[in-house]
Fold this protein.
Amino acid sequence: MAPVTLITPRRLGDERGWFSETYSRKALAERGIGEEFVQDNQSLSRPTGTLRGLHFQTPPYAQAKLVRCLRGRIMDYAVDVRRGSPTYGRWIAAELSAETGAQLYVPVGFAHAFLTLEPDCEVAYKVTAYYAPECDGGIAFDDPDIGIDWPIPADRLLLSPKDRTLPRLSEWESPFAYDGVPLPERLD
């Protein structure tokens, strides 16, 4: 399994604009990402400060994600929730924007969230398992044991009612096993 990975597809541009191959199974496989993506999801978040997460889907329908921002700018987060991992509870983040085209690969065993940094953000992501409501889960965005340093104050974040009531990491037993690949120190 590949670690959390930042991917920036090449853009070919001229006076008309640019062209980019945003998904190539072969190119991802060369980076160690061999999963088959089975569903595409897209969201629109109108206000700045919209937070979606920290979400995951549990086995047997656990999902890896390949996330990109189609319009606007977001901070995208992955939190290690694999039991036995030396980086359990630690997080990593990357700014994704329509301007750069960067994408974040989030493997199975990580909670995922994104925060909009400007209005009218559109986010698209591929997943490796179909949505299964019975396997839908999450962790509290403000869990002090995780300690995410959100770039917008918590009292100004816009969350769904569901995301405001998610459990803390200490109140939840992870069904994800550590696979030997720790969370990277940083994303390049």
